[in-house]
UniProtKB/TrEMBL annotation:
Pfam families, per database record: Epimerase
Protein's UniProt name: UDP-glucose 4-epimerase
Superkingdom of the organism of origin: Bacteria
UniProt similarity note: Belongs to the NAD(P)-dependent epimerase/dehydratase family.
Domain (NAD-dependent epimerase/dehydratase): residue spans on this chain: 2-228
Length: 302
């Protein structure tokens, strides 16, 4: 039995669909604080609360592997509501670890983030220095430490995916930067960039992310992986790519408007991601290119 927490969310709901299509036994749970998706392809999503130890005890019963996606994933919300973020992103993880050990769970798969890395880093590998620049990144780093401590004791196998920017159409919408730019072009509105547009981001498609989680279910897979793609863009270059793709697919582009940021812009030094380790999970799978992902938005707009 595989437990998926945060199953009504952007990655969780897509993962439930994928695992269901592989005919795997799934228990899907969510607290429905963001999306109220009651089922995915006939798999019910149960209302349970990770911050309540009694619920956690129930959800892990009879489970072999946990994919723990339930968390506050918005950076600004973690900063603004830091006490709630600690409770949901960290304390509930501790509850989950404790009850998992008692229930005989074999493995926990945990989504971390590039936010744990030093913002001064240029080429990122799994050995890059950790130095979070925001509270969200610190919560992810502390969560990693809790999990890795259990793996060191031999009580749990752990897989940690430090994710870059996930994009692509799923069961529920998420306002990623790519989706926002594509939505603007589809509605013939200008693409707005805040700041210089020189901030760099790595991107990976949602379908490739779900494939990685599926592969991580395998017994030998454990440890830390950077879950990112092979393409890194500045925000300005990304906007230009959306416009070029829109011109080719829809016959139009839109103006790119730059606005001043309300807070000072932090320079990003990131230029590339070392994907050598994650390729061992993807094996011969061809990752979806950012351009192909943009084309998919334009070919079936909603």
């Amino acid at each position: 039995m595989i437990l998926v927490t945060g199953a009504a969310g952007y990655i969780g709901s897509q993962l439930v669909r994928f695992l269901s299509n592989q005919h795997l036994a799934i228990r899907a749970i969510d607290n429905f604080s963001v999306h109220r998706l009651s089922q995915v392809d006939g798999v019910p999503i149960h209302s349970m609360d990770l911050t309540q130890p009694h619920d956690v005890k129930q959800m892990v019963s009879g489970v072999d592997t946990i994919i723990h996606l339930g968390a506050i994933s918005d950076v600004a919300q973690c900063e603004k509501n830091n006490k709630e973020a600690v409770q949901i992103n960290l304390l509930s993880l501790q509850y989950l670890i404790q009850e998992s050990i008692q229930a005989g769970v074999r493995k926990i798969i945990f989504p971390s983030s590039f936010a744990v890395y030093d913002p001064e880093a240029e080429v990122i590998t799994e050995q890059t220095k950790l130095n979070p620049s925001n509270f969200y990144g610190h919560l992810k780093k502390w969560g990693e430490e809790l999990l890795l401590a259990e793996q060191a004791k031999g009580t749990l196998d752990i897989v940690i995916f430090r994710q870059s920017n996930v994009y692509g159409r799923g069961q529920v919408s998420k306002q990623t930067v790519i989706e926002s730019f594509c939505h603007a072009l589809l509605h013939n509105r200008e693409i707005t960039i805040y700041g210089s547009g020189q901030q760099t981001r790595n991107f990976i498609h949602l379908d490739d992310v779900t494939w990685a989680y599926y592969q991580a279910l395998s017994t030998p897979v454990r440890g830390i992986y950077n879950l990112g793609g092979e393409e890194t863009y500045s925000i300005l270059d990304l906007a230009c790519l959306v416009n070029r793709t829109g011109k080719r697919c829809l016959g139009r582009s839109v103006p790119i408007l730059r606005k001043e940021r309300t807070i000072p812009e932090k320079k990003t030094h990131f230029t590339a991601l070392d994907t050598q380790k994650i390729k061992t999970l993807f094996q011969n799978r061809q990752l979806k290119s950012v351009q192909a992902g943009i084309e998919a938005y334009f070919s079936s707009p909603v």
